Amino acid sequence: MDVPALEIQLKTLPNAPGVYQYFDKEGTIIYVGKAKNLKKRVSSYFTKTHDSGKTRVLVKKIANIKHIVVETETDALLLENNLIKKHKPRYNVLLKDDKSYPWICVKNERFPRVFSTRRVFKNGGDYFGPYTSVKTVHTLLDLIRGLFSLRTCNYDLHEEKIRSGKYKVCLEYHLGNCKGACEGLESEKHYNENIKAIKQILKGNFKDSLSKFKEQMMELAENMQFEEAQKIKEKVEVLENYQAKSTIVNPKISNVDVFSVISDESYGYINFLQLSYGSIIRSHTLEIKKKLDETDKELLELAITEIRQRFHSKSKEIYVPFPVDIGEDIKVTVPQLGDKKHILDLSIRNAKYFRMERFKQIKIVDPDRHANRVMAQMKADLRLHEEPRHIECFDNSNIQGTNPVAACVVFKNGKPSKKDYRHFNIKTVEGPDDFASMEEVVYRRYKRLLDEEQPLPQLIIIDGGKGQLSSALKSLDALNLRGKIAIIGIAKRLEELFYPNDPIPLYLDKKSETLKIIQQLRNEAHRFGIEHHRNRRSKSALNTELETINGVGEKTVVELLKHFKSAKRVANAKLDELEDVVGASRAEKIYNYYHNN
């Protein structure tokens, strides 16, 4: 039975902040939204009853969902705005106008002006932002103007025009808000020192400016100007708590393509991010099936050419995780730290999320492909000669040396095969001897499989370290199976994998699927063994209780259990039912024992 594509996408969305895009059946973007948690937010569209008729129509038209993972909610907000401006989706009414997020511009001119703007020009100066709050921009500009005297006029302050006396100071000069650069009353050097300090504030370096601000506050306080001092104190607190980097990356990073690659045994996943003025304007992940065990470098070079042609990219620089050869016209940068490394890491995260989602989707719609991939991965990770399609795991269970048992669980194609699970009551070992118990159950298990001509596993996992593994090997030697079946031991403490005749354990990545399957086998064997052990102890305790009843001997207990099948049923039996089995005298003693108690 086919699972609807949307249902699969909803099940595999990440619990991370990001932006989601809805497409109709023609492949047109019809809605872009942001979310703290992509999975919860997108799922809510399909699980809630919507009062808005527009929302109900939107949900009906959704044929495909795409998303971009980002670091924070602020990043999601900015990215959502960029995508809405670019694609103008039909159902995004709120952000369809020409409004965009504000920047602070330090103008590229003599005696630069500092002002807010919603338009970014390539050579217009240095831009800081974008900021998600206009209030933040105004607060920063107020702080800057309170610290530094800057001009607000739009005069062309060339040196010759100032020298010729073309301009006269305005009211701002008389109010103390400007030093009169238009009449040459302030040197360009002094003005530029202030501009340098302002840029440091906008980049997040407030140390020097805060010191000057606090000095000004103390001076006002000493002069008994407490109201003015309090106003400056409030601005200092806002400035100290403010985080300057409200953009996804540095706004100076513009017209750049970012590529990253994640791969496994069969597929490569290449993520592409396109940046413009510090913001992501496009994200795309390409899945490539390997044919000849291509390297990540080969996959990335192939994908870069394909993606740039598909999206008509004209960027002259790309960021990649390692050097690639894609021609002389494109500058290749391998970031090591800072904002460039930050955006490359974000691309890698998107590739990883895409890969995880594909695995989950494949597991639902194509379980055979999922099993083939996992088996190939386990073969490579565990250095096996063949894929471990049939795995068996053994675990011993005994508490304070009583009722020792063992369990064998079976996985086929990476999934539990519960009909093949087996319990073992230890027969030949006295006391709590894990090594001898392991030797006994492994021998019994594979002696029986050989006698019945049943298929043997490709991999045996022993829950324990070198001791238990050595004991299991003795049984394989006795059955002449050494070398015919791969066998490893897993130690609980550090999840070490031990191999026969190899003193150095193997450590797998804690997040690897191979280790997760081995842990699942070990945990399942432990659960299955403990369950059997508890049943035996419980049965033993009940049987012992029957024997403690005065006048009831071993033969009577056997007769009762043969008839009633369990001690619990004996305890719940009626007097006449007991009389039919053991006679009136003993029946009365048994009945009175349980019912009086």
From TrEMBL:
It comes from the Bacteria. GO terms for cellular component: cytoplasm; excinuclease repair complex. Signal peptide: none annotated. Its main location: cytoplasm. Coiled coil: none annotated. Residues 15-93 form the GIY-YIG domain. GO terms for biological process: nucleotide-excision repair; SOS response. Interacts with UvrB in an incision complex. The UvrABC repair system catalyzes the recognition and processing of DNA lesions. UvrC both incises the 5' and 3' sides of the lesion. The N-terminal half is responsible for the 3' incision and the C-terminal half is responsible for the 5' incision. This is UvrABC system protein C. The lineage of its organism: Bacteria, Pseudomonadati, Bacteroidota, Flavobacteriia, Flavobacteriales. The gene is uvrC.
